[in-house]
Amino acid sequence: MIKIKKRENGHLIQVELAELKELIPFVVEMDDLLEQLEAKSVADFETNINKLTGFTNALVSARAFSKEKEFLRLLALEVIIGKKISSKDLDKSKNLKSAVISKIIDKHTEFYTENEQETKQTLETIMHSFNSLTLESRKQIAFNRSGELSYTPFSELRF
């Protein structure tokens, strides 16, 4: 069945987009640092610098090449950014890609289930049939105490 949108939580969408937009400058800074250090990622930098020095501790290796400040900033940026966003999620003008935005919108959008769609269709049919009756005919039926639709006690059609 076709997905029909039930509701969209605009507030959560805006909050998450705002959080990601705040992280964009950090992602750009991290990319620039990695480019300066000629690495693709922090792990790649750690591996490369440890190979050059023969050490097993990346911080000691970075200190040996006077790259300690850059390495510590990379680690701090990695903590700030986490797994929330990467440079692959940004377009050339350093804005969020439309695919990322649509994924966030879909995450905070609720759709009708198949059962709900069938129930909704049935109820709409019933409402349309009821509303097509004249006002006098509508007065002949009502809901009883158990919530069932039945003739009213004053209806002449119930006999």
Q: Which key features would you list for this structure?
A:
rod-shaped; 159 residues; mainly alpha; two-stranded antiparallel ribbon; 2 domains
Give the biggest sheet.
Answer: 2 strands, antiparallel
Given as residue ranges, the uncertain stretches (5+ residues, pLDDT < 50) are none
End-to-end Cα distance, whole Å, is: 43 Å
Q: Give the spatial strand order of the biggest sheet.
A: 1-2
Shape: rod-shaped
Q: How much strand content do the residues show?
A: 5-15%
Helix content: 55-70%
Give the mean pLDDT.
Answer: 92
Tell me the number of strands. 4
Rg measurement, Å: 31 Å
Helix tally?
A: 7
Plain-language structure description:
The protein has 159 residues and is mainly α. It folds into two domains: 5-111; 114-151, no CATH class. The protein is 58% helix and 8% strand. It is built from seven helices and four strands; from the N terminus they run E-H-H-H-H-H-E-H-H-E-E. The protein has helices at 10-36, 42-53, 58-64, 68-81, 98-107, 114-131, 135-138; strands at residues 5-8, 109-111, 141-143, 149-151. A two-stranded antiparallel ribbon has the order 1-2. A hairpin with a 5-residue loop joins strand 3 (141-143) and strand 4 (149-151). The longest helix has 27 residues, at 10-36. The chain is rod-shaped. The two termini are 43 Å apart.
Give a brief rundown of this model.
By secondary structure, the chain is mainly alpha-helical. It is 58% helix and 8% strand. It folds into 2 domains: 5-111; 114-151, no CATH class.
